[in-house]
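Ticket opened by: R.M.
Priority: normal
Category: complex prediction / small molecule

The reporter submitted a protein together with adenosine-5'-diphosphate and asked that the result be attached to this ticket for the collaborator who will pick it up next week. Submitted input follows.
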Amino acid sequence: MAPGLFITFEGIDGAGKSSHIAPLAAAWRAQGRCVTLTREPGGTPLAEKLRALLLHDDMDALTEALLVFAARRDHLRCVIEPALARGDVVLCDRFTDATFAYQGAGRGFDTQVLSYLERIAQTGLALEPDLMRNPDLTLWFDLAPDVAAARLADARSPDRFEALDTAFFHRVAQGYAARAASAPQRFARIDAAQPQAQVWQQLTAVLVQRGWLADGAGVVPAMSVPGATL
Ligand SMILES: Nc1ncnc2c1ncn2[C@@H]1O[C@H](COP(=O)(O)OP(=O)(O)O)[C@@H](O)[C@H]1O
Ligand SMILES: Cc1cn([C@H]2C[C@H](O)[C@@H](COP(=O)(O)OP(=O)(O)O)O2)c(=O)[nH]c1=O
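Result attached by the on-call engineer:
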């Protein structure tokens, strides 16, 4: 059995993550791999309830951090770890880097506390009991906040995060850049300002280069592939 692969998609709101996840899942499935397609916050019935609170109810940054890690723990326990143990490719729309970018850099919450929560929430669930689960690869969609905002203005009504100002998203973008610099082996930066066909090419090239996807993978996604299919 091929070993499981845990791949996360990160970037500010509107960077283009959701548009590419379903087509990548289809490309892997066409090559005979089982794929688990999921998202954070969310991915389990409990974590989806926490997601609804996070996206719509007012709360402070510590409460946000505790809720995202509670949702993550349940998601790891019920979905991600079992899928990896089966040998699936797990494609997850956001994971812990989002917490460091949004609650850490965006809200200004203490990143040492986030690191502590990361360790306790992500350890003790894998086959190897001491492993702190981290993605094998993080595809980071890097896009200027004003371009992302222009894309979103045409696309959907904003949630509690998407309604924040551009200064917040500049901080979040810097948070992602810092996280990527601290784990360069794990991160692949995708230039999300490119037209979608080129974004797709860059994404698949990263995966082919690692030997995880065979060459000639799938079609370029249509612009309208919704995140709502997750
Ligand atoms: N490379 C691209 N160029 C132009 N528009 C894009 C591109 N990628 C995605 N979009 C559009 O931008 C909007 C936000 O994309 P989406 O995939 O939902 O972003 P995210 O999941 O990162 O918030 C959608 O309307 C989508 O069709
Ligand atoms: C995973 C995660 C997401 N978020 C935020 C980022 C997003 O604005 C929001 C929901 O993410 P997302 O699923 O990308 O929203 P959408 O489906 O509308 O594209 O949650 C955090 O603040 N911290 C986290 O740890």
